[in-house]
From TrEMBL:
One GO CC annotation: extracellular region
Protein name: Extracellular small neutral protease
NCBIfam families in UniProt: snapalysin (NF033628)
Entry annotation: catalytic residues: E169
Positions with a binding annotation for Ca(2+): D161
Catalytic activity: Hydrolyzes proteins with a preference for Tyr or Phe in the P1' position. Has no action on amino-acid p-nitroanilides
Keywords assigned: Calcium, Disulfide bond, Hydrolase, Metal-binding, Metalloprotease, Protease, Secreted, Signal, Zinc
UniProt subcellular location: Secreted
Gene, per the UniProt record: snpA
GO annotation terms (biological process): proteolysis
Cofactor binding note of this UniProt entry: Binds 1 zinc ion per subunit. Binds 1 Ca(2+) ion per subunit.
């Protein structure tokens, strides 16, 4: 996000207003994400722990988010043990400006891993997407009450490749931590390589890690739920 400071009163104010208008028109012409309505920011939960696209990695936030989603999926698997495919359901209704990017991110992950699939729903979901303006940028978070969500920031998604941002944050859903010092070929390096990085796909190590997490991690979560149920 760029901030401007002026000393020359109304003349500079008019120049900045014209510049802002020009940038807004350019963004619209390029098809970049813009606010759909002011209502979208009103329903965003307050983050308890968060892992952002750009900044210091907060591994506690990464783990809390993954654990919340894993628990939600495990409860469904325990209740329906005949399910063949592990599915994580997401609701993107609160991020209408990013509908296309979110769909692309889900498709990227679905084509990259085999042990878990992402599926859109308009009803109850394992996690949700929100959009709005936030000086922290885009991030994955929990609300402190067992629910996970992804927040997509307007300004950051104009600066960085928007599908990469969505795919990166969705990687937290699947259990991957941030690694900002990594190369552009590593999806979870996030904004570390800079705005010129447009790689949207996880590398072989990231794909393997997600597949392992959703075989071993989910099995343990389901077993714990079953043990807890048998002791009631």
């Amino acid at each position: 996000m760029v901030s401007f400071r002026t000393r020359n009163g109304s003349k500079n104010s008019r120049r900045l207003a014209a510049l802002a208008l020009g940038l807004g028109l350019a963004s619209a012409a390029l098809g970049t994400a813009s606010p759909a309505s002011a209502e979208n920011t009103a329903a965003v939960p307050s983050p308890a722990t968060a892992a952002g696209y750009v900044g210091t990695a907060e591994n506690a936030g990464n783990k809390a988010f993954f654990d919340a989603v894993l628990k939600s999926v495990a409860e469904r698997q325990a209740a329906q043990p005949s399910l063949k495919v592990v599915t994580v359901y997401y609701n993107a209704s609160q991020a209408p400006s990013f509908r296309s990017q979110i769909s692309s991110a889900a498709s990227i992950w679905n084509s990259s891993v085999s042990n878990v699939k992402l599926q859109a729903t308009t009803g109850s979901a394992d996690f949700a997407y929100y959009e709005g303006n936030d000086p922290r940028g885009s991030y994955a978070s929990t609300n402190g009450h067992g629910s996970g969500y992804i927040f997509l920031d307007y300004a950051q998604n104009r600066q960085y490749d928007s599908i990469r941002v969505a795919a990166h944050e969705t990687g937290h859903v699947l259990g991957l931590p941030d690694h900002y010092s990594g190369p552009c070929s590593e999806l979870m390096s996030g904004g570390g390589p800079g705005p010129s990085c447009t790689n949207r796909y996880p590398n072989a190590t990231e794909r393997s890690r997600v597949n392992q997490l959703w075989v071993n991690g989910l099995a343990k979560a389901v077993a714990q739920l079953n043990r807890a149920g048998s002791t009631r």
